[in-house]
């Protein structure tokens, strides 16, 4: 066992990291145990660890355990970990191997059907991860993980790769305000956000990938964790008085070099202002009324260093419009509470 954990020891400074050093370890139970840890490191991923021969055989799974047999996910074999890691949660400081936050996503026991250097077939019995899966080696340290059982959610809908945003048109305030919600009209760039496997892709209203322009927004994918979501919002730059500034944003829209983008993301950061949710965890929300979509968006509690979900107001459109005018903002957007989302 000591030899198998030597790579683990060599990669770590246990005086600088809270990770457990190999010790006597917990006593083995009647069934082998597993843990899936959410690892917010340089790249968000999940770590799958299986108790085997006194250590934890480990794989990094960038997109998590697949819930559907129609999709295989990459799993990269990493060094074996000590059994103490079954319960480890903590923040690994910058400068250490695997720096970032480690949290337990699920744990439980598993049945072994096959365990070799090229193929591992198991049935998980966890709270969130369960069913028969197979890991098979493809090349070097690269493996794939495949769900062998039927999908956990047979009605699951695939996440759309592209949706056109629903567009507003100019008008006057509605007379029956109680049937409408009102939001500030942001002077920014419309952006659809596609979050999957801890990663975020931003697309313009024409479907162009604009993710590289705004690196400070990428951590939103990590904030969403295992959620798969399609978000609607605007990328906004604020001036020194906290007002949206399209002129300031223009300085971020057409930069040619990665170095310039990185520098500007620090000097003139943007904010992704979220106002709608179109897909969440296997379910399209396009046909749901605005009020339900907005409630689902609010439940995600997406407020971070470079993203926010501003409040909407049911009724009181006149008051919000006056406030917008007083602050020199573009205006307000009115949305019917019972209105579905119509792309285009």
Your description of this structure?
The structure is a single chain. Helix content is 15%, strand content 36%. By secondary structure, it is α+β, with helices and mostly antiparallel strands. The protein folds into two domains: 2-147, no CATH class; 177-336, D-amino Acid Aminotransferase, Chain A, domain 1 (2-Layer Sandwich). It is elongated and about 70 Å long. The N and C termini lie far apart (60 Å). The mean pLDDT is 92.
Computed Rg? 24 Å
**CATH uppermost class of the largest domain:** Alpha Beta
Give the helix/strand class: alpha+beta
H/E element sequence = HEEEEEEEEEEEEHEHHEEHEEHE
> How would the global form be characterised?
elongated
Distance between the terminal alpha carbons, to the nearest Å? 60 Å
Give the key terms.
elongated; alpha+beta; 36% strand; 18 strands; D-amino Acid Aminotransferase, Chain A, domain 1; 344 residues
What order do the helices and strands come in, and which of them pair?
Blueprint: H1 2-10, E1 33-40, E2 44-52, E3 55-61, E4 73-81, E5 90-92, E6 100-115, E7 119-126, E8 130-139, E9 142-147, E10 180-184, E11 189-196, E12 199-203, H2 219-224, E13 229-236, H3 246-253, H4 258-267, E14 271-280, E15 283-284, H5 290-299, E16 307-308, E17 313-314, H6 317-326, E18 332-336
Parallel strand pairs: 14-16
Antiparallel strand pairs: 1-2, 1-6, 2-3, 3-4, 4-9, 5-6, 6-7, 7-8, 8-9, 10-17, 10-18, 11-12, 11-13, 13-14, 14-15
């Amino acid at each position: 066992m000591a030899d198998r954990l030597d790579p683990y020891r060599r990669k770590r400074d246990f005086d600088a990291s809270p990770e457990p050093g190999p010790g006597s370890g917990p006593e083995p139970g009647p069934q082998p145990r597993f843990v899936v840890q959410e690892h917010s490191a340089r790249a968000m991923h999940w770590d799958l660890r299986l108790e085997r021969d006194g250590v934890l055989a480990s794989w990094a799974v960038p997109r998590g355990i697949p819930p559907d047999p129609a999709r295989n996910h990459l799993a990269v074999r990493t060094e074996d970990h000590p059994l103490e890691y079954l319960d480890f949660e903590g923040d690994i400081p910058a400068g250490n191997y695997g720096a970032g936050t480690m949290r337990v996503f699920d744990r439980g026991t598993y049945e072994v059907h096959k365990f070799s250097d090229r193929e591992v077939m198991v049935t998980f019995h966890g709270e969130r991860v369960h069913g028969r899966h197979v890991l098979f080696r493809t090349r070097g340290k690269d493996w794939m993980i495949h769900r062998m059982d039927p999908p956990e959610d047979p009605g699951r809908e695939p996440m759309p790769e592209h949706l056109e945003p629903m567009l507003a048109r100019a008008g006057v305030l509605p007379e029956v305000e109680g049937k409408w919600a009102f939001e500030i009209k942001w002077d920014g760039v419309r952006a659809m956000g596609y979050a999957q496997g801890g990663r975020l892709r931003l697309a313009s209203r024409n479907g162009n990938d604009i993710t590289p322009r705004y690196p400070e927004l990428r951590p939103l994918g990590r904030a969403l964790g295992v959620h798969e979501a399609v978000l609607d919002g605007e990328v906004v730059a604020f001036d020194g008085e906290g007002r949206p500034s399209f002129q300031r944003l223009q300085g971020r829209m057409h930069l040619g070099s990665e170095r310039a983008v990185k520098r500007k993301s620090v000097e003139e950061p943007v904010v992704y202002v979220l106002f709608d949710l179109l897909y969440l965890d296997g379910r399209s929300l396009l046909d749901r009324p605005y009020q339900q979509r907005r409630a689902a968006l609010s439940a995600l509690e997406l407020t971070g260093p470079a993203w926010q979900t501003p409040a909407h107001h049911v009724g009181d459109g006149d008051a919000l419009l006056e406030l917008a005018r007083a602050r020199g903002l573009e205006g307000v957007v009115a949305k019917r509470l019972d209105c579905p989302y119509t792309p285009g």
